[in-house]
Amino acid sequence: MFSVLVANPKGGSGKSTLSTNLAGYYACQGKKVMLGDVDKQQSSLAWLARRPEGLAPISGWEIAAGEPARPPKGTQVAILDSPAGLHGKKLDALIRRVDRILVPIQPSPFDMWASESFLGQLLEEKAVRKARVFLGVVAMRVDPRTRSARELEVFLSRYDIPVIGWLRDAQSYVRAAGEGLSIYDMPEGRTRKERESLASVVSWLGGAEPDHWFDK
């Protein structure tokens, strides 16, 4: 199973937007996908409950009385949407279960300041230092040609963390979320720019090539 943790200590950073659209991408590629919401707000779970029948299926946690939540049997891709303020043992436990970590950050001073200690903590994790888990940042609601984008890159250069994608501020994400859709469930002509923006993220994660799927 290939697993991705989407994490940021600040609420409103775009974790659920990124998580739901990645889950939608892999589902549309024919993968058996689980979207695991470990956020108290349960935003991704609410999205999943609105997902129309007939679309590429996405599962939630498999929950049995007295047992820990688990991915459904046969899951190939697990996307984990994490809570704000994630740290300590809970963060350690999640990192041990994943292959990639995505940190969505908006290029505002407040968002960058809020992410400083979290990024430092991630880089100190043994799995990250030993390159067993790979870490990348996704810039949210920003045009890469702007001054704020350059300031974000300067900020991240202190940590030697790559910006692997730039997601623009688009109403397509808002409309999709309200209907339980991803941009990949909407007409391609209406979401072409959004798909192009996410293409570099998908490429960094490994796309949908068979060689990238493995049991852990």
TrEMBL record:
Gene3D superfamilies: P-loop containing nucleotide triphosphate hydrolases
InterPro entries, per the entry: CobQ/CobB/MinD/ParA_Nub-bd_dom, DNA_Partitioning_ATPase, P-loop_NTPase
SUPFAM superfamilies: P-loop containing nucleoside triphosphate hydrolases
Highest taxon in the source lineage: Bacteria
CobQ/CobB/MinD/ParA nucleotide binding domain residues: 5-182
Protein name per Swiss-Prot or TrEMBL: Cobyrinic acid a,c-diamide synthase
Species for this entry: Paludibacterium paludis
Upper lineage: Bacteria, Pseudomonadati, Pseudomonadota, Betaproteobacteria, Neisseriales
